[in-house]
Fold this sequence. Notes:
By secondary structure, the protein is mainly α.
Amino acid sequence: MCVSGLGVAFYKGWSLALAMFAIGPIMLIGMGIFGAIMQQNTLVTMKAYSQSAGYAEQALGAIRIVACFGQEKLEIDNYNRFLMKAKEAGLKQGGAIGLSLGFFYFCIYICYCYCFLIGGVWIDEGFWNHSEDRTYLAGDCLAVFFGVLFGLFALGGTAPAFNAINIAKVAGKSAFEVIDRKPEILQDDTTAKKHTLKGEIKFDNVTFFYPTRPDQAIMKNFTCTFELGKTTAIVGPSGSGKSTTIQLTERFYDPNEGRVLIDG
C-alpha cells in the first residue's frame, strides 16, 4: 500500500508529490517520539511488575510455612503494596503516552494543513503538470495528496512491528545486563587465604535487604553466634530471616551492614 500510494501520487503529479513529501519528516518526528515513550513505558512497567512477581514467587515457594503461621493476609498486603507501586508507575507513563499520542495527531493535522496550502498555491500559480501536460487542477492535487497520505500512513502502519521490536530490545537489554554484570561475590577467589574449616558461625551486627525489596529490612542489627558442636534452632514467622540466615552463611548474598564470620 505504501508503494502503491506513493506511486499514484508521483504518477499524477511528481512536482507536487515532491513538495507534499516534505510532510514525511514531520510525521516521522511524531511517530519517533511516540515510539520512544512506548519503549520507556515498557521498560518501567517490566521493572515495576518484576518486583511484585519476585515477591509472589518467594511467598508461593514457602506457602506451607506461610499457612502454618497464618501469614496469608500479611503476604497479600505486601503483594498489594508492590502492585500499587506498579499502578503508580503505570499512571505516570499513561499520561506521557497520552501527551505523545496527542502530539502525533497534532503532527498529522499540521501535515493536512501544509498539503492543502501547497496544493492551493500550485493551482493558483498555474504550475505545469508534466504528467497530464496541463496546469494542475483540484482533482490532481487531491489525487496526489491522498496518494502521499496513504503511502505515509501505510509506512506508519508498521508501528506495531516496531513496537514489538522495541519490546524485544528492552527485554534483550535486561538480559544482556545480567549476562555482562560482574558479580560482587567471587565464588572462586584465588586471593583468599586457605584455612581448615571448623564450623563456628558469627553474625556481627548484620543488616540485610533483598535486592528485590530494598525497602523491607529482613535483618536489622542482628548479632548471633552459632557455636561449634551445638545445635541451634531458628524459629519465627515467614519473612523473619530464617532462610536468609542460611543464604548469608553460604554467601549467596553479602550483608548491607555488619559481618558474617566463619571461624572468627
